[in-house]
Amino acid sequence: MTLPVRTILITGLYAGLLDGLAAVWVIYIRSGRTPDLVFQYIASALLGNPAFSGGLVMTLLGVLLHMLIAVIWSFLYFLVCSCFPPRRRHPARWIIPGVLYGIVVWLIMNLVVLPISKVTQPPFTATGVGIGISVLILCIGIPIAWSAHRKYTTRQ
Prior knowledge:
This protein is mainly α. The chain has one domain (5-154). It has helices at 5-31, 35-47, 55-83, 92-116, 126-154. The protein starts with a helix and ends with a helix.
């Protein structure tokens, strides 16, 4: 089984860009805070609160970590998809799995990854959960599922 490494990387970077832009936009709309806070928050998963006073270096570390995580999620989806490739070109063959994958990503990130990191998690609210899941469905799940579906149905 050979995975399409280039496609996985491009898909992950694209999904990471979409998700990063959505996070920046949501944080700005909800609190008026600047983009650097989003990425310093991500860096704080490794370094704790000192990441918030690290300036540009911590912001760039957060961007790098964010993109790496998106590429990992892309890799995992392509790995599963390579074992169970789609058989037909039909939107339901990638939209539904994309929605489900976005929900799975949210669950794993918020209930497994973040609690074992050094990040300070805000309390869960219905609005926050709804926005978070929606962003991950639209920016991670659906784009990755579409790309994998396109790659694997094109190859057949």
